[in-house]
Amino acid sequence: MSYLLIGNISALICDDCIEPLAKGRLRIYLPEDTYPADYANRGKFNHLTQLTPKQVALKEHRLLAETVLDERGDFHLTWEQLHLFTEPLELDLCLNQMPGRASGKNSVNQYHLSKLVPHWKRTKDKYLAAYAYVIPSEHWNAIRGSYGTWVISGTVRYFETMAGQPQLKVEAYNAQNNHLLGTTYTNGQGRYKLHFGLKDMSAGKLLPVKHGQYHAGPDVYFKIYRNNQLLWEEDIQMAQSPERRAIAPCTLLNIVIKPATATRATRQLAHWLGGWSGANRQRRNQLNDFQLLAPF
Length: 296
Fold this sequence. Notes:
With 296 residues, this protein is α+β, with helices and mostly antiparallel strands. The chain folds into two domains: 2-143, Sandwich (Immunoglobulin-like); 149-257, Immunoglobulin-like. 18% of the residues lie in helices and 40% in strands. The protein contains four helices and 18 strands. The chain has helices at 53-58, 137-147, 198-201, 261-293; strands at 2-14, 17-20, 25-29, 44-50, 63-68, 74-80, 89-95, 109-116, 121-122, 126-135, 149-158, 169-174, 179-185, 191-197, 220-226, 229-233, 250-252, 255-257.
């Protein structure tokens, strides 16, 4: 009899934004020799507890199946078993990079996710079960930080209506050196998700990650474009506000586009006044010249 386990694994960036763990590798292990008699009624979740290479090696002989998560974080795992499979399974997740921009870390880390007995349902030719898990944002924030990557999510809204603005280009800048961190676009509801890594933060130069420490994030400000025309540019001083300074690896930042008509009108008025005063001076000079040439 064949067994099919399907599901999804994603992570919370913030309370209302999820990112799938695309290209992560899910590994399923057979149970150890003994488990409590009531284990079938329980499940243990560990929020991605990192395993040491020795711990991974010790359980290698129990590996049952593995697969790679697709772009949406979905997976399908199949294996053959002669008897009704009621033992608990151990689920581990392997990551060698974060979703989005490349990180400054190339090593593969394996995390223990859970131990559970799936609720198998008999179909015509197989047993089928489903499993889904969303990693809490506080745990995902720590893991992203260890890889030297950041993700900013939020909504771009218009000042007067506070309605989400679709199909706008969002650019984030590092206020410490004014270099572009990353670019993305808003969706139909005005939501955006922007990724960047250490190389983007340091303008192409990879910063070393100290053992047991994470880099502080940059201070950020934004520029918004419509059809490649600059629509809204934040003052760089915005990067000094508390929510924009040394941002966490998972950060929620909403952007409000404010009208700049007063600024434009002031510039136009100054230009007009400058032109008017210049023309007046020119007329006065011409009049003076005429008076000097006129006969008595």
